[in-house]
């Protein structure tokens, strides 16, 4: 890296978020070719402190790409270098590494835009010329936060000379002035927040972008039959979504909805690409388009018909920009629920009287990440080979992903941070993962816990034993969390019958012998239940047990003679009530599923072996056309097995909230069938189905029963969400008071 500007070695000690780094990714020059055709499909990643903060769009088939993309990054201190990594995009395969460089931010002059040329290097081949990257960089202190901090300090110095009333009045004036005039200050749901929280609480994003993919028109034919199998990819910054595949059509109907977080006040650009799915080979590119969010007005739904560039046809979208959800990070002293007025505001927001106000806002979640103890040592440093880690914590709820700061060289870190989220689905699972920061490579996994929101006990500080990546067994260390959940039960019930929120594009499934075997065994267990039931009925016909057969015969005559349609949901209702009675009376015969747990552990061991093998053998050597077929079979087995397990777990009261909801629904259905003739029910159902598209042309199709079952955990998920018991020898009282580092 060339030395840039004058050195600022004496940077002032900074509060979090004190510096703003504006980067314009200009272009690349003479990049290394990584594809067979002598070209590359380059994209760029920016990392600070081991965490990815930006990813550029992909420029296809170009060794001198021009990006002209801008990003704004908040940093705690310029001592952390900016790492730039360039990759060649390979669809469906592992992306090829082109080269990397780093920029020493302390070499930049404050408040001055600087053009930088960085030469790319590969540590394994230091002599190779891999090209260069051109950037424009501007490093500046966050003036608004600096002014607030300085005013705070001056006020503390004068506090002995002024009265408390004057002090508080001045800060109330400051609060409202900054609330209206500084768009970089946090957003607050209530005006009752304490003034001292101003510089402790920060908002993570400024709004939500809701995109509904309606349809495609007159797309380009990519297959020999004159048709295509199109799907769509969306990207806004590092956020990605992928639509479902619609086979054999040039006018696909998707009706899918995605939500993006909007981080910049001026908006951003959503990159959209359309692809044709090809089994066993690389997918064909159909076309691309973009949505410039800065041109769209907020709180309004826009219907867009976008022509595809580099291709043929159109995409039809609905795009809505809404205000930000209450998602924030703060210190322990800025506790929203301990402030009585703010707690009352939150309780009022989710009271039963506000059932139909914003159905997507189901509840409020507050997570206190306090500390961790006895973590795994990931680093070996120093002359005495001291084993330490640089842990940081990632808190995830669906697509909301927040991070703590890094505590360096410590196996017993204390974070003392509060994270707040809006709950869109009460059946979501809170995931807390601890990583070890590594500057020169990706972060190392230290442990993870998954906590269903419905299993949380409010206000209780608990020590959660960290689990492995598969969430099947313990790893070293515990993490101390205190979680509070406030939600509207009626809204949560209504939301249960709507489609689940999709997650960002995740790693594509790969073929695994253990996973294929696990899914086959799970489906076999579900099928065996039906087979055993058939054997039982047949044994009644064969009079293997005369008393049982006689009772079954009399029950058959009684039911058939008196059968009414309402008895079908009544039977399910009685089955739920019977299982509930067994649980309450202590006669529950449900057993912990050790079979699934053992299979999951075997699968994790195979994943570890695959990771090691992949380092020795290239991914291309393992890719065959038949693999995609096997992965499809593997996924179908998983879907069928999960469907049967979810039905079983509904009646087993695995999630009491869902079982109670099923009781209410079955009771209502039984009463309706008892009092209303079937022809009227079918008539209403048919009229609703035929007129649904006329009443709401862009409504997203859904099945309420399948949406309900999607919230019930399968047996695999039950094992993953099971809370492990803490080792009795590990006690908070034995924790060292003074941690090194």
UniProtKB/TrEMBL annotation:
<feature type="domain" description="C2">
    <location>
        <begin position="189"/>
        <end position="306"/>
    </location>
</feature>
<dbReference type="InterPro" id="IPR035892">
    <property type="entry name" value="C2_domain_sf"/>
</dbReference>
<keyword id="KW-0472">Membrane</keyword>
<dbReference type="GO" id="GO:0005789">
    <property type="term" value="C:endoplasmic reticulum membrane"/>
</dbReference>
<comment type="similarity">
    <text>Belongs to the MCTP family.</text>
</comment>
<keyword id="KW-0256">Endoplasmic reticulum</keyword>
<dbReference type="GO" id="GO:0030672">
    <property type="term" value="C:synaptic vesicle membrane"/>
</dbReference>
<feature type="transmembrane region" description="Helical">
    <location>
        <begin position="657"/>
        <end position="685"/>
    </location>
</feature>
<dbReference type="Pfam" id="PF08372">
    <property type="entry name" value="PRT_C"/>
</dbReference>
<dbReference type="GO" id="GO:0046928">
    <property type="term" value="P:regulation of neurotransmitter secretion"/>
</dbReference>
<dbReference type="Pfam" id="PF00168">
    <property type="entry name" value="C2"/>
</dbReference>
<keyword id="KW-0479">Metal-binding</keyword>
<keyword id="KW-0812">Transmembrane</keyword>
<dbReference type="InterPro" id="IPR000008">
    <property type="entry name" value="C2_dom"/>
</dbReference>
<dbReference type="InterPro" id="IPR013583">
    <property type="entry name" value="MCTP_C"/>
</dbReference>
<feature type="transmembrane region" description="Helical">
    <location>
        <begin position="162"/>
        <end position="180"/>
    </location>
</feature>
<keyword id="KW-0770">Synapse</keyword>
<keyword id="KW-0968">Cytoplasmic vesicle</keyword>
<keyword id="KW-0106">Calcium</keyword>
<dbReference type="GO" id="GO:0005509">
    <property type="term" value="F:calcium ion binding"/>
</dbReference>
<feature type="domain" description="C2">
    <location>
        <begin position="340"/>
        <end position="466"/>
    </location>
</feature>
<keyword id="KW-0967">Endosome</keyword>
<keyword id="KW-1133">Transmembrane helix</keyword>
<feature type="domain" description="C2">
    <location>
        <begin position="1"/>
        <end position="118"/>
    </location>
</feature>
<keyword id="KW-0677">Repeat</keyword>
<dbReference type="GO" id="GO:0055037">
    <property type="term" value="C:recycling endosome"/>
</dbReference>
<feature type="transmembrane region" description="Helical">
    <location>
        <begin position="550"/>
        <end position="581"/>
    </location>
</feature>
<protein>
    <recommendedName>
        <fullName>Multiple C2 and transmembrane domain-containing protein 1</fullName>
    </recommendedName>
</protein>
């Amino acid at each position: 890296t060339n030395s840039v500007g004058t050195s600022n070695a004496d940077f002032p000690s900074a509060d979090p978020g004190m510096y703003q780094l504006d980067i314009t990714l200009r272009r690349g020059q003479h990049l290394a070719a990584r594809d067979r055709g002598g070209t590359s499909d380059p994209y760029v990643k920016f990392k600070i402190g081991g965490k990815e903060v930006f990813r550029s769009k992909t420029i296809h088939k170009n060794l001198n790409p021009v990006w002209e993309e801008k990003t704004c990054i908040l940093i705690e201190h310029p001592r952390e270098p900016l790492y730039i990594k360039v990759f060649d995009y390979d669809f469906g395969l592992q992306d090829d590494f082109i080269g990397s460089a780093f920029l020493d931010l302390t070499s930049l002059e404050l408040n001055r835009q600087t053009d930088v040329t960085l030469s790319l290097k590969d540590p394994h081949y230091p002599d190779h010329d891999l090209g260069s990257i051109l950037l424009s960089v501007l490093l500046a202190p966050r003036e608004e936060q600096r002014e607030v901090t300085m005013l705070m300090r001056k006020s503390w110095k004068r506090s002995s000379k002024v009265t408390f009333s004057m002090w508080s009045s001045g800060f109330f004036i400051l609060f409202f002035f900054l609330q209206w005039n500084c768009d970089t200050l946090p957003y607050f749901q209530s005006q009752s927040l304490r003034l001292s929280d101003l510089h402790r609480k920060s908002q993570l994003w400024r709004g939500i972008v809701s995109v509904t993919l309606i349809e495609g028109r007159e797309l380009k034919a990519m297959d020999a039959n004159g048709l295509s199998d199109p799907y769509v990819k969306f990207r806004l910054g590092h956020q990605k979504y992928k639509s479902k595949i619609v086979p054999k059509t040039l006018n696909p109907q998707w009706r899918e909805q995605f939500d993006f977080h909007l981080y910049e006040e001026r908006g951003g650009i959503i990159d959209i690409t359309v692809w044709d799915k090809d089994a066993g080979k690389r997918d064909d590119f159909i076309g691309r388009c973009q949505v410039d969010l800065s041109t769209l007005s907020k709180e309004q739904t826009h219907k867009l018909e976008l022509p595809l560039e580099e291709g043929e046809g159109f995409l039809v979208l609905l795009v809505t920009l809404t205000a930000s959800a209450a998602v924030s990070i703060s210190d322990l002293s800025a506790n929203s629920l301990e402030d009585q007025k703010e707690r009352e505001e939150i309780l009022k927001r989710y009271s039963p009287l506000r059932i139909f106000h914003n159905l997507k806002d189901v509840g409020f979640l507050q997570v206190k990440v306090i500390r961790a103890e006895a973590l795994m040592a990931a680093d070996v440093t120093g002359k005495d080979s001291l084993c330490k880690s640089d842990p940081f914590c990632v808190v995830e709820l669906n697509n909301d992903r927040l991070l703590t700061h890094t505590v360096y060289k410590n196996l017993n870190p204390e974070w003392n941070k509060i994270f707040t989220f809006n709950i869109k689905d009460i059946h979501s699972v809170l995931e807390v993962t601890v990583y070890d920061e590594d500057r020169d490579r990706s972060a190392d996994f230290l442990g993870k816990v998954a906590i269903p929101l419905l299993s949380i006990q409010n206000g209780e500080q608990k020590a959660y034993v960290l689990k492995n990546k598969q969430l099947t067994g313990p790893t070293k260390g515990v993490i101390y969390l205190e979680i509070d959940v406030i939600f509207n039960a009626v809204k949560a019930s209504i939301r249960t019958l709507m489609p689940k929120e999709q997650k960002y594009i995740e790693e594509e499934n790969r073929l695994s012998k253990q996973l294929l075997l696990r899914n086959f065994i799970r489906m076999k267990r579900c099928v065996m239940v039906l087979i055993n039931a058939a054997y039982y009925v047949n044994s009644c016909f064969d009079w293997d047990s005369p008393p049982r057969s006689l009772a079954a015969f009399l029950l058959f005559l009684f039911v058939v003679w008196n059968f009414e349609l309402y008895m079908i949901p009544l039977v399910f209702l009685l089955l739920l009530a019977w299982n509930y009675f067994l649980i309450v009376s202590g006669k529950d015969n449900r057993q912990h599923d050790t079979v699934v747990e053992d299979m999951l552990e075997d699968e994790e061991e195979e994943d570890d072996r695959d990771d090691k093998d992949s380092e020795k053998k290239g991914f291309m050597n393992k890719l065959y056309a038949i693999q995609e077929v096997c992965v499809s079979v593997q996924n179908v087995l998983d879907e069928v097995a999960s469907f049967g397990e979810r039905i079983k777990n509904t009646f087993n009261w695995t999630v009491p909230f869902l079982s109670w909801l099923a009781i209410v629904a079955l009771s209502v259905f039984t009463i309706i069938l008892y009092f209303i003739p079937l022809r009227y029910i079918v008539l209403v159902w048919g009229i609703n189905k035929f007129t649904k598209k006329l009443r709401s042309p862009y409504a997203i199709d859904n099945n309420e029963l399948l949406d309900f079952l999607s919230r019930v955990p399968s047996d695999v998920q039950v094992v993953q969400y099971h809370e492990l018991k803490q080792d009795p020898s590990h006690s908070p009282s034995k924790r060292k008071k003074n941690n090194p580092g």
